[in-house]
Design goal:
This protein has nine helices and eight strands. The chain is globular and about 50 Å long. The longest helix is centred in the middle third of the chain and has 27 residues. By secondary structure, the protein is an alpha/beta fold. An eight-stranded mixed sheet has the order 3-2-1-4-5-6-7-8, with helices on both faces. Helix 2 links the parallel strand 2 and strand 3. Bound molecules: NADPH dihydro-nicotinamide-adenine-dinucleotide phosphate.
């Protein structure tokens, strides 16, 4: 039987191309999307064969919807061998926080809390699969890491002491550190949480379950719709800047290939690893395991993030 791999946010960008690359490599892809019509059109346009994919609805910005998705996945009767946490929002220009139905700030909910809930509950589904090679992969990004050039541009991520999570993360709180709302920082903070989550999953569950937990930075995919909420001028200039000045630019197709490789290839079966291809792209660029940022490797913070996230998603 084919491996079944869930990809969240498979209606555009990296997730869509990852779904295509996974299907090309023989997997059955569950395209977990908030807009199924858009996802269906995108899958058809890219030529992902119908018998290699199933569309299921999920809105990661609603914990209730994540739980409904899990039920609808279970109703398909499929086993689960791969889970790719890819969906994300980036809202650099908003002045006031948006909220999930639970009342939590929306960027952190979509990018982190929704996936945190998904990984924790779907671990049970993965455990039930008899396959020997099973993997959970979370998309990271260079901007999570102020130690790297791409991560130095302010505002830098900072989880602080997770005061905002500890206070319940509802109005008037909007940031994990409890400070003033800053949408770009909210995105970066959520990505630090993604990396921390992957590392904690590895530390807590790899030995017991045999599941491989990894994260990756696929390169700067400067022309995905991720930047759709930015100034139009930024959207024009950013890909050119990345292509010719920083040389960090990666096509959506190549980024999708990289994700698929991390899910399926033997060389990426290394639990706890954060994979990168570096920032300067050249033809045939090889991947390597990269050290994550100081906050993303801080075990005390990881523990705190884990326990508070469990509470926020009502698993504890
Ligand atoms: P896109 O904006 O192209 O894709 C994001 C996907 O997530 C879309 O399918 C979108 O759906 C979906 N999504 C957003 N909100 C929700 C939600 N509430 N519920 C379900 N799905 C949702 O971005 P990218 O492809 O660029 O980004 C994908 C991942 O790659 C992200 O995790 C990002 O952090 C990471 N990344 C991207 C980099 C880049 O340079 N682009 C660099 C490093 C990492 P819809 O189509 O309906 O909007």
């Amino acid at each position: 039987q084919k491996s079944t791999v869930i990809v969240t946010g498979a209606s555009s960008g990296v997730g869509l191309y990852a779904a295509k690359a996974l299907a090309d490599r023989g997997a059955h892809v569950i395209m977990a999307c908030r807009n199924l019509e858009k996802a269906e059109a995108a899958a058809q346009e890219l030529g992902i064969p119908e018998d290699s994919r199933t569309m299921l609805h999920i809105d990661l910005g609603s914990l209730e919807s994540v739980r409904r998705f899990i039920n609808s996945f279970r109703a398909t009767g499929r086993t689960l061998e791969g889970l790719v946490c890819n969906a994300a929002i980036y809202m650099p220009l908003i002045k006031e926080p948006l909220r999930s139905p639970e009342g939590y700030e929306l960027t952190m909910t979509t990018n982190h809390l929704g996936h945190f809930l998904l990984c924790n509950v779907m671990m049970e589904d993965m455990k039930r699969s008899l396959a020997e090679d099973k993997r959970m992969v979370i998309l990271g990004t260079v901007t999570h890491n102020p130690d790297e050039l791409g991560g130095k541009i302010p505002p830098r991520p900072d989880l602080g002491d997770l005061e905002g999570f500890a206070k319940g993360f509802r109005e008037p709180v909007s940031m994990i550190d409890g400070k003033k709302f800053e949408p770009v920082k909210a995105y970066k903070d959520s990505k630090v949480c993604n990396v921390l989550t992957m590392r904690e999953l590895h530390r807590r569950y790899h030995e017991e379950t045999g599941i491989t937990f990894t994260s990756l930075y696929p390169g700067c995919v400067a022309d995905t719709p991720l930047f759709r909420n930015h100034y139009p001028l930024f959207q024009k200039i950013f890909p050119i800047f990345q292509k010719y000045i920083t040389k960090g630019y990666v096509s959506q197709e190549l980024a999708g290939e990289r994700v698929a490789a991390v899910v399926l290839d033997e060389e990426y079966r290394q639990s706890g690893a954060y994979w990168s291809w570096g920032n300067r792209q050249k033809k045939g660029r090889q991947s390597f395991v990269q050290r994550v940022s100081p906050q993303a490797r801080d075990e005390e913070r990881a523990e705190k993030m884990w326990n508070l996230s469990l509470k926020l998603v009502e698993l504890a």
